[in-house]
Design goal:
The structure holds 2 protein chains of 2 kinds.
Chain A (H helix, E strand, L loop, with lengths): L1 H4 L2 H5 L7 H15 L9 H15 L2 H10 L10 E7 L4 E2 L5 E11 L11 E8 L7 H16 L5 E7 L3 E9 L3 H9 L9 H14 L6 E8 L7 H13 L2 E8 L5 H9 L5 E4 L5 H12 L2 E3 L1 E7 L4 E10 L3 E3 L5 E2 L3 E2 L4 E9 L8 E12 L10 E10 L9 H24 L3 H17 L3 H17 L4 H14 L5
Parallel strand pairs in A: 2-18, 4-5, 4-7, 7-8, 8-9
Antiparallel strand pairs in A: 1-3, 3-16, 5-6, 10-15, 11-14, 11-17, 12-13, 12-16, 17-18
Helix pairs in contact in A: 3-4, 6-7, 6-11, 8-9, 9-10, 12-13, 12-15, 13-14, 14-15
Chain B lengths: L1 E2 L6 E2 L19 H21 L10 E5 L5 E4 L4 E5 L11 E2 L13 E8 L2 E6 L6 E3 L2 E2 L5 E4 L4 E4 L2 E7 L2
Parallel strand pairs in B: 5-6
Antiparallel strand pairs in B: 1-2, 3-4, 3-13, 5-7, 7-8, 8-11, 9-10, 9-12, 12-13
Chain lengths: 488, 167
């Protein structure tokens, strides 16, 4: 049995020099995962008892010292994921003005990842069934949900929640649902009421949680077409709670009315992302693609807890793959999933104030990174992560790493449109329009004719009407984002 | 400060791309990057051709008459073309590369202007080029479409081109 060879540190998933605080937290997390009240799979009660024993020993300093004395030296374990840090420049320069540095963090499956089983899914569809969904959107949504139902594997747990200003469990979380009966449940959904995302999210969270036993990829897919009013802060709090419990949230917005900024923020708190569905007939493809992505997950999330240095500000963080989206530049950061066949790439931008360049080395980030590997019974300890750069009198000759130039080049277009938005909000119409025109030129250079045209039309809209159209705004934002994913 | 060679925006030291116009600022000097880009450029051209919308007829709808060299370039296949010159350092690919016609010394930008067909009408749009696009002697406003008539002469910087529109 695997557990026999493992020492208490491995069982809890902490380093040998972990503090009492870290040990306690790891214990609480593991206890939540394997608590006998929850788990359904054979062998998990034994794991829970092991966790219990490990904690009893390690939480007591004198017992821990005795245990440590008998412990064989640590073997280097190969983890299922590995990572690399690339910098845009070999060093910082002593300057009297601020300067920038870009960092690409690449987390990819290691050779060992092949041994890890691909975890089953525990997914809840939270479907907006408010009045505005009536018609084609509702029809397409039902058809897509039914289709997904038939794609499920026997080991997957599935639930469906419908919501408007109240929420209803249409299909409770269950294995091997009776597909035909449930299909008719989905087909009977009727649109009514207003959109209150909190209602839908809260009920979905309960469904996912009821089967969240630490062996599944736990995820809520929220599909909506409207704004939610007044409950945004409560939704964000719920998302934080979900993230702590290892439950991810993704959102899909249909049409032009929904609040993309809010849903982006909501999802990014859990390592998820939002997608824009321009036409109802695309719902199906987006949903299937999401399920397909979830079923290739090797690490459900990578959690980065960090601290920075005053004067070296993280000005921007963006996940360039597998699913693109901006990340909040604050700790703890849920970086998102690593897929079996696609690394997780996150790009960071730092702005360094001149006062820091008196030092020999500037530490940009110090923290610990914890990949959540669902297919493993025991958690893996967090690893230390540090971003730092030496300071020299002269700029280094070395060109930036090609991977950085590549992702930054593609990200630049997204950022130009972002900048246009900021200027528009500040009332600088001329500048905002100017940036959209520059965006159009760049898009043409990449052969993106229709998106370039949209950018030009929106530049005109800014000058004529002082604002963007809802469709154009979303088309440009998600269009420039999807450029990141385009294969050469 | 790094001053952008394209738009003169002042970027902070350490910037890789111009925050204003998106041009690449560093990392283009090394030989390795140039080779890769040139290689990519060769590969992307035929692909771009294949991806062109097939809904238009494949006959020539207009030709460009380069006045200095006398060369005639037919426009067919698709309804929109970008004009410019290929740059070794950047992965920008205009549909029509004017490099062989002294584009550089005439002040043609990498992505200078676009030609578009709508029915029987042909339009030209300047893409924010450094030296401007001129139509019958007048400088065009960037990013605005202007109607072209058969045998109109326009110039990209100093490169003079006559448009021949097929009736």
């Amino acid at each position: 049995m695997m557990a026999k060879e493992q020492n208490y540190y491995v069982i809890l998933g902490v380093d040998r020099d972990a503090t009492q605080e870290q040990i306690k937290r790891a214990y609480l997390e593991a206890a939540q995962r394997f608590h006998p009240d929850k788990n359904k799979l054979a062998g998990e009660t034994e794991i829970f008892l092991e966790v219990q024993r490990a904690y009893e020993t390690l939480s007591n300093p004198s017992r821990r010292a005795q245990y440590d004395a008998l412990l064989p030296p640590e073997e280097k374990r190969q983890l299922p994921v590995e990572w690399e840090v690339h910098y845009s420049r070999p060093n910082l320069v002593r300057l009297k003005e601020p300067q920038m540095v870009y960092i690409l963090l690449e987390i990819f499956p290691s050779k060992r990842s092949g041994e890890i089983p691909i975890p089953p899914l525990n997914v809840c569809l939270a479907l907006d069934c408010s009045t505005s969904m009536a018609g084609e959107k509702m029809d397409m949504l039902k058809a897509a949900a039914v289709n997904v139902l038939h794609e499920l594997r026997p080991q997957d747990v599935f639930s469906v929640v419908s919501f408007s200003d109240r929420a209803q469990v249409i299909i409770p979380a269950s294995y091997r649902p009776e597909k035909h009966r449930l299909e008719s449940q989905i087909r009977m959904l009727q649109p009514s009421g207003a959109t209150e995302i909190f209602q839908g999210l809260e009920t979905s969270l309960k469904e996912v949680q009821s089967s969240a036993d630490g062996t599944h990829i736990n995820h809520i897919i929220l599909i909506t077409d409207g704004h939610t009013y007044g409950d945004e802060p409560a939704c964000l709090k719920l998302a934080e709670e979900a993230a702590q419990k290892g439950i991810g949230i993704s959102a899909m917005g249909i049409g032009k009315e929904w609040n993309d900024v809010f849903l982006d923020t909501l999802c990014s708190l859990t390592g998820g992302s939002s997608k824009y569905i321009a036409k109802p007939e695309d719902i199906h493809a987006f949903l299937l693609n999401k399920f397909e992505t979830l079923s290739r997950v090797i690490a459900a999330d990578v959690v980065l807890e960090f601290s920075g240095t005053p004067g070296a500000e993280m000005t921007f963080a963006f996940r360039t793959q597998p699913e693109t989206g901006p990340l909040p530049a604050e700790s703890p950061l849920h970086l998102g999933a690593v897929l079996q066949d696609m690394p997780l790439n996150v790009l960071f931008e730092y702005r360094i104030e001149p006062s820091l360049t008196n030092q020999d080395v500037v530490t940009l980030l110090q923290g610990s990174m914890k990949p959540v590997i669902t297919g493993l019974r025991t958690p893996i300890p967090p690893v230390r992560l540090e971003f730092s750069r030496p300071v020299l009198a002269q700029a280094g000759e070395e060109a930036p790493h090609p991977a950085i130039v590549h992702s930054l080049g593609r990200l630049t277009l997204y950022r130009i449109q972002d900048k246009a938005r900021i200027e528009l909000n500040a009332g600088k119409y001329e500048l905002a329009a100017q940036h959209l025109k520059q965006l159009a030129t760049n898009l043409l250079a990449q052969g993106e004719r229709s998106l370039a045209r949209t950018a030009l039309i929106e530049a005109e809209n800014i000058l004529q009407m002082g604002g963007l159209s809802e469709e154009g705004s979303k088309a440009i934002k998600y269009g420039t984002r999807s450029l990141l994913m385009k294969q050469e | 400060m790094i001053v952008c060679p394209n738009c003169k925006h002042e970027n902070l030291d350490g910037s890789v791309f111009c925050f204003n116009c998106g041009s690449q600022l560093v990392g283009t000097g090394s030989l390795v990057t140039q080779n890769i880009d040139a290689e990519q450029a060769k590969q992307t051209q035929p692909i771009a051709g294949k991806n062109a919308p097939p809904s238009y007829s494949f006959e020539t709808w207009a030709s460009l008459h380069l006045l200095d060299s006398g060369q005639i370039l037919p426009l067919s296949d698709r309804s929109e073309f970008t004009l410019g010159r290929v740059s070794e350092a950047q992965p920008i690919m205009p549909d029509i590369d004017l490099t062989p016609y002294q584009a550089y010394s005439c002040g043609v930008s990498r992505l200078h202007a676009a030609l578009k067909r709508e029915g029987k009408r042909v339009f030209i749009m300047d893409l924010g080029s450094s030296n401007g696009t001129f139509l019958n002697g007048k400088r065009l406003q960037p990013h605005v479409e202007y109607l072209l008539n058969h045998s109109d002469i326009f110039s990209l910087g100093k490169l003079k081109i006559q448009i021949l529109i097929k009736k």
